[in-house]
Every structure is written in structure tokens, then in C-alpha cells.
Amino acid sequence: MPDRKARSRLLLLVNIALILLAIYISLTNGVFDMTVLDVIRTLLRIDPVAEYDLVIFDFRLPRIVIAALVGFGLGVAGTVIQGITRNGLADPGILGINAGAGAAIVAFMFFFGGQFMDASWYSIIAMPLFGLTGGLLAAGLIYLFAWRNGALDPQRLILVGIAIGSGLGAVSLYLSLKMNPNDFEMATVWLSGSIWSANWTHIAGMLPWLVILIPVLMRKVHILDLLQLSEESVKNLGVSVEKERNILLLSSIGIVSACVSVSGGIGFVGLMAPHIAKRLTGIQHRYVLPLSGTIGMLMVVAADFIAKTVFTPLELPVGIVISIIGVPYFFYLLSRRKK
């Protein structure tokens, strides 16, 4: 146990070091290159320069912070959803929860139009709530169709999730096609997973969700471990399975909805991060959950830097960059399960 604890701490420290490296590279490189000394002087307000202030505080830093928060949230939520369903292929994107949250937010954009574009406090607060409603709707439909003989059927879960995600994706596309040209362009980029419009207001809107819900999940890590046993065994231990599962699921959907509200449909982070964390530190969720969050953080921060620099002056949505890695990884996991 001490060895595993020490190993987990070491892995976290290594991952944090890699995240800091990715942040440093993202802050100093781009269309407007800066030295590390320029960044430090700007952050510490030593002889501030207007151009550096604009690049760091208005463009790069909010984007990096949102990428980090979204990556951490999706990594943690993916770990919990895999634990609840006892299915290593479960993921907020694959199960349709991303699509449900996205469809609800696109509906918000469709009905309120300019409210989304001007990033008002009303839209910043309302969008995660719309996303939560859509995510709950998707989760409810999944439960309804994947429930069999008094329990979730892992075989049906993925198929139902893909079907529901496709249907809700079609709803999002239909609504986006009905928008005016400006809102349509914004919605299209956002749906593919993009954080190019990041600002401090978005951060303030999503941060309370993570601050409240992630500690809830961290306090339930022992329940996640127990849920890997058969349902009868868990009940015999005195655990209220449905109550605990609902708390975990609702918290995860809330986190995913907050992430989707600022970054759109970024998939595969919640699939890959938990698998990588479990390979590195074992299956105990007290170690897996924080490591999975930091791995997700590293993935999104690095992918966002690639997305905004590789094809300069053009920019790819970060969701596409992650999908380039995520799709082959998903097929790799499928092939392993067959074996």
C-alpha cells in the first residue's frame, strides 16, 4: 500500500510537471512569440507592455485555463461513468451524454441567439443548466433502454448510447441549420469541440460546478470501488446501490454539462484518461480519479496548442485533434475486449 501511494504521488507530480511544460509552451509560442521572461514580467506586472497583456490575459491564459479545467472535468467524469457502468468502453461522449448536453445548449443558442454571442452573465449561467437538462435526458433514455432484468446491461449500454448520441446529434444539426448565418458558424465550430472563444467570464461560469461536484466524487471513491463487485454483494455490505449510483451519475453529468457549455463536444478524453491512469496506478479509484483528471488536463492543453499552431493561420477545433488519437485508441480497446 505505501508503495502504491508513493507511486501514485510520483505519477501525479510527473503529470503536473508535464502540464506546466505544456502551459509554458502554449503561453510562449504562437503567432506572437514571447520569451519566458516576457511572460513572467507580464504576470508579475513588472514593466507591463500593452501588447503582452492583450496576448496573455485576453487570448492565451483564459484558453489554457479552460482547456485545463475541461480536461480535468472530463477525465474525472469518464472515470466515474466507467465505474458506475462497470464498462471500460463507457465515456460521456460515446454514451450520448455529451450529445444530450450539446443538443440542449444548441437549443438555447437557437432560441436566444445573440445571448450566446455576447457572453453575457445570463448566458454563462444558463448554458450549463441547459446542458445539465440535456445530459439528464440522455442519461434517462440510456437507463430506460439499457435496463434489463433489474440492472444495466453493459452490452446494450454502448449500443444504446451510440444510438441516442446520434439522434441528439441530428437534433443539434437540425437546429443549427435553422440559425442565422453568424450563429450557425459559431454553433458549427462549437459542436466540433472548440475553446477558441474562451474568456474569464466562461471560466467563472463553469468553475463553481467543478469546485462543488468534484469533491463530491472524491468522497465517493470507496463506493466506486465497491460498485465493481456484483450488485448483490454491494447490497449485502449495506450500500444503497441506486442512491449512490444516482449521486455519482448526477455529479458526473453536471461536470460534463459545465465542460460542454464552454468547449462543445470534445470526445474521447473521458475514455482514454481513465484507461491510461488505471494502467499506471492500478484500479483503486482513490488513486485513479486524480490521476485521470490530470491526464485529461494534459491531453486537452496539449491538443489545444496543436490545434491552434499546426495549421497557422488556420485553426482546428481541439475536438478534432483529440479524435485523431481517440478513434484508433477506441478500436484498440475493442480489439482487446474481443481477445
Q: Could you characterize the architecture of this molecule?
A:
- The chain has 339 residues and is mostly helical.
- The chain has helices at 2-28, 36-43, 50-85, 97-112, 114-117, 121-146, 154-177, 181-191, 200-218, 221-226, 231-236, 241-263, 269-281, 285-309, 318-338; strands spanning 147-148, 151-152.
- The chain has a two-stranded antiparallel ribbon.
- The protein is globular and about 65 Å long.
- It has one domain: Orthogonal Bundle (ABC transporter involved in vitamin B12 uptake, BtuC), CATH 1.10.3470.
- Its main location: membrane.
- One of its GO terms (cellular component) is plasma membrane.
- The chain crosses the membrane at residues 12-32, 61-81, 93-113, 119-145, 157-177, 197-218, 247-275, 287-307, 314-334.
- Keywords: Cell membrane, Membrane, Transmembrane, Transmembrane helix, Transport.
- The percentage helix is over 70%
According to DSSP, the number of beta strands is: 2
Overall average pLDDT = 84
In the predicted model, the low-confidence regions spanning at least 5 consecutive residues are none
- The second-level CATH architecture is Orthogonal Bundle
Q: Give Rg in angstroms.
A: 20 Å
User: Which H/E pattern describes the elements?
Assistant: HHHHHHEEHHHHHHHHH
By CATH reckoning, the class would read Mainly Alpha
Strand order of the largest sheet: 1-2
Number of individual domains: 1
Helix and strand composition category: mainly alpha
Shape call: globular
